[in-house]
Structures are given as structure tokens and as C-alpha cells.
Amino acid sequence: MTARTAARTREIDKGFLVGLGRAAGGSIVFALPVLMTMEMWSLGESMDRPRLALLLVAIVPLLVGLSHYIGFEETETWADDLRDAFVAIAVGFVTSAVVLSLFGLIGPHLSFDEVLGAIVIQTVPASFGAVIAQGQLGQTDEADRRRNRQAGYGGSLLFVASGAVFLSFNIAPTEEIDLISASMTPWHAIALVLISAAAMHAIVYSVGFEGQSAARPEDYRFWSVFLRNSLPGYAIALLVSAAMLWIFGRLDDLGASATLRLVIVLGLPAAIGAAFARLIVGGQS
Description:
Strand content: under 5%
Pfam families: DUF2391 (PF09622)
Radius of gyration: 20 Å
Largest sheet: none
Organism: Ancylobacter novellus
Protein name: TIGR02587 family membrane protein
Number of domains: 2
Distance between the termini: 45 Å
Number of helices: 13
Number of strands: 0
Helix content: over 70%
Shape: flat
Oligomer: single chain
Keywords: Membrane, Transmembrane, Transmembrane helix
InterPro entries: CHP02587_IM (IPR013416), DUF2391 (IPR024464)
């Protein structure tokens, strides 16, 4: 091995370790609201195990896509992105285990299954924080910015889905959404649908948040952009909301009307999360 090759290897290893440290920091930041939420502590013990496993499997494609566009290190191939997705899950798992242990929420007083469930449920938001730590907490170079601009329509929808998953995950287990949906009339539900879709469009294209200039097409026309981007984005937010509610068992034994209201209620924060994630893309769709 030549001196130049050895130096290059050390540089790559150092860069990966720096990225790993940044990923750990990002996982803690993104997971703390869930780590300190009482509903999540009990969910890890009681949640249906096949659904929990399905949730963990379902986030892998999202993490792969996030790694490809704004991962915690630059990658060349999809195999690298898949590796980084599993690294993010591993980082999220370890940081969640450490924090839960420090809080005294897991330990010898629980069975192995209960401990594992408590850690895995927290790993979901932690892994999102780990994989996007570079985009949010690190220094983004020109190559990363070029890659973000080339995300295109498919990349923007991936970010929409990721944002919807992250925010709806934090809210779906709470009892407050049950109280809100129970107090709503059909007219409230219709109004909430319209406001959610309008808010999603406004956040991305109208109110001047950072990243809007890159997301907004040069030939912007309201109806064209709304039908092509905002409406599919809101549909994704609703689908993600329904999936999250089902995974957490919130739709079990509910009728069609109650289910629809609950999905619409969760669809509001999911749409907001999707909209801000769309801005993070910074890509022209």
C-alpha cells in the first residue's frame, strides 16, 4: 500500500467517523420528543410485534432515499445508501438504548422482549435523525447541493413521505387525536382537509420559507403546481397517517366514519411535516 493510498484510507475513515458522530447527535435531537413521551414507553411493551417489525422494515426504503440525497456521508452507489440506512438504524438503536437506560426506563426489571420493543419503537425517529444529520447539522458542500437539485419529482415525493412519517409517528400514539376527532362534525372534517392541503401548498410555494426559491418552478402556475405536487403530497400524507394509525393499533374496532375522521386529524401534522420536508429537498421537481 502506497503512502498516498494509506493517507486516503485514513481520510475516508476519519470522514466516516465524523459522519457517525454527527449521526449520533442527529438521532438524539430527532428522537428526544419521543424518548420523553409516556405513550411511547408503554407502546414498546404492548405493541403488536409483527406491526412493529413491519414499521422497521417500511422505513428502510425511506432511509435509503434520504441517504442518497442528504445522507450523513457522500455515497456513490445505491449499495452505499443501503449500507448507510442500516448504519443509521444501528446508530438510532444504540442511542435510543443509551438514553432509555439513562432515564431508568429499561433495565433488569423488564423482560428482554419488553426492552427490545421499547428500544425498537424509539429507533424509528432516531434513525431519521441519524441519516439526515448531514443535511441539517453538517456542512453541505457544492456536490451535495447539486445532488439535491437533481432529486426531481420522485425525490420530492420521497421527502414528502419521509416528513409525513416522521411527524405522524410522533403524534399517532397520543390520545389527543381521539378527542379531537370525536368532537368534529363532517363539516369540520371537510374544512380540515381543505386547510391541510392549502397549508401544505402555502408552506412550500407561497410564504417565503428558506428553500422555497428552489422548490418553486420558474413558470409557476397555481393549479398546475397544486395538482402535480401539492395534491399528491397531501394524498401521501393521508396514506401515511392511515398506515401509522393502523400500525399503532388505533384503527382497530373503529367504524369507517371514525376511522376517516382520525386519519384526517392526523393528516394535518403529517401534511405540515411533508411540506417542510419538501423544502429540505431544495430540488426542482
